[in-house]
Design goal:
Strand content: under 5%
Number of helices: 6
Radius of gyration: 46 Å
Shape: rod-shaped
Helix content: over 70%
Structural class: mainly alpha
Length: 188
């Protein structure tokens, strides 16, 4: 297979994604990874924030030292930094809008997939419980059938000992008919 040349990031050991739609690492990331990715995607926003902070620090230092000209210049620099940051944010939102939409779609698909996996796991658990219940019912049925057979055998043994069993009576009745001694009722 021909693979595109890998582009390693100088900041991390992971490869920089060439296509956001096909790279699973792009979507499964920690907060720190997301932060660094956003810094790489839109490096002008942190730059604008840094310029704004530097200008505020310079204005504060100039006010404390009593240099009003430099303080005014730093306040203007702060405004330019804020304007630059806002422009960078708006331009970045237009530029990366399609990736954000793709990411939201992916998160929805991932959410549905996880819900489906959870549902399938629940169904599998229910099927396993159903199978266990069927096995349990079969065992109970076998045990009750076995007990019933044992009770029938025990009852037959008791009747055989007493000699009053149905079979015994039938045999005696047949013997009586054949011999005519009247014990089985004799001849009709």
């Amino acid at each position: 297979m021909n693979q595109p040349p890998s582009s390693q990031s100088p900041l991390s050991a992971r490869e920089v994604p060439s296509s956001f739609a096909d790279n699973q690492a792009y979507f499964d990331e920690s907060r720190w990874q997301k932060f660094t990715r956003r810094l790489k995607e839109e490096p002008l926003i942190p730059l604008g924030c840094a310029v704004t902070c530097w200008a505020l620090w310079g204005a504060t230092k100039s006010i404390r030292s009593g240099d009003s000209y430099n303080a005014q210049r730093m306040f203007r620099m702060r405004l330019y930094g804020q304007f630059f940051t806002i422009v960078a944010m708006v331009a970045g939102s237009f530029y990366y809008n399609s990736d954000r939409i793709l990411r939201k779609e992916y998160e929805e698909i991932l959410k549905e997939r996880k819900a489906m996996e959870k549902r399938n796991a629940w169904i599998k658990e229910l099927e396993a419980r159903d199978l266990e219940e069927k096995d349990w019912r079969e065992k109970v049925k076998e045990v009750t059938q076995k007990r019933k057979e044992e009770e029938d055998v025990a009852r037959a043994k008791e009747e055989a000992k007493k000699g009053d069993g149905v079979v015994t009576k039938a045999v005696k009745g047949l013997r009586g008919r054949l011999t005519g001694d009247g014990e089985g009722g004799g001849k009709p």
